[in-house]
Specification:
The chain has helices spanning about 20-35, 50-65, 80-95, 110-130, 150-165, 185-190, 210-225, 240-255, 265-275, and strands spanning about 5-10, 40-45, 70-75, 100-105, 135-145, 170-175, 195-200, 230. It is of the alpha/beta class. A 4-stranded parallel beta sheet has the order 2-1-3-4, sandwiched between helices. A 4-stranded parallel beta sheet has the order 6-5-7-8, with helices on both faces. The termini are far apart.
Length: about 280
């Protein structure tokens, strides 16, 4: 039987208490309990002691000659890390470990599992508001910004899925940086359109500096719009639906049915360089 290592690649959280990275480790522990026969390791792209190159090296050494490493991005949507950083690191480790097979699994993406997780977090926020009328409760799906139009398009797609699958008349995307619209602009629009309540729904996997910044922004918005009830919902976290999605991505990576086309080959890296 082929010696196999599963490597989860997380973004990394820049927060003083390192809470976000600890949440990733806790999620990995929950996932290991579902796959006790598997060797599941974790690394981060930045803001951690175990960075991507070290994580790949450790996984390759563990897999050994004739073994394989399944690299699964614990990242919501495609952008620079998925298209550039991980493929380049894979290309480098393939040079130093030619006897190890590396497979690059698909990022999490816009899926029914994440839709269900977001709807659950939204429902929890509505419960705290004593279940107001969704037709007068606007939702801001707030995500990390990106310069990659496909990544931001996936956020807009998820916002539309939330609109289609709930009774909320307005579900709008917004971003915390890099691109627009920002949170303040979107809340202003919902206010002008007459929404009595506004739920800010973070499209984030784990806590970190940005989640805490969102909380401060929401506090300021409450003072700016005293006639509106503005609340912040929880981020996705170690949700059961996220674990199920990881199960799916693992199966797809193992059987080769869904792999990222940009998996570190020289042709893909050249195309990425030309694109930039």
């Amino acid at each position: 039987m082929t010696n196999e290592v599963i490597l989860l690649v997380a973004h990394g959280a820049r927060d003083p208490g390192n809470e976000g990275n600890r949440e990733v480790e806790a999620l990995a522990d929950l996932w290991r309990a579902r796959h006790p026969e598997s060797d599941i390791q974790v690394c981060w792209i930045e803001y951690s002691e175990i960075l991507l190159a070290d994580g790949l090296e450790r996984a390759a050494t563990t897999a050994g000659t004739g073994g394989r490493v399944l690299v699964l991005p614990l990242i919501l949507n495609p952008a620079g890390h998925v298209r550039g950083d991980i493929p380049q690191a894979l290309d480098a480790v393939r040079q130093t470990h030619p006897a190890v097979e590396f497979r690059y699994g698909h990022y999490l993406g816009t899926t029914q599992q994440l839709l269900k997780a977001l709807r659950h977090r939204l429902h929890q926020a509505l419960v705290e508001l004593d279940m107001p009328d969704p037709r007068t409760t606007g939702v801001v799906l707030l995500a990390r910004g990106a310069s990659d139009m496909e990544a931001t398009g996936e956020v807009a797609k998820m916002a539309h899925w939330l609109y289609e699958s709930t009774d909320h008349e307005l579900v709008l995307p917004a971003f915390t940086g890099i691109c627009f619209p920002r949170l303040e602009q979107t809340v202003q629009r919902l206010d002008r359109l007459g929404m009595s309540q506004i739920v800010v729904l973070p499209y984030y996997l784990f806590t970190g500096r940005l989640i805490k910044r969102i909380a401060r922004q929401v506090e300021r918005l409450r003072t700016q719009y005293p006639t509106r009830c503005i609340v912040q919902a929880g981020y996705i976290g170690a949700h059961e639906q996220l674990l199920e999605l990881l199960d799916l991505r693992l199966t797809q990576c193992r059987d080769g049915s869904v792999l990222l086309p940009c998996d570190g080959c020289s042709l893909a890296l050249a195309a990425e360089h030309d694109h930039h």
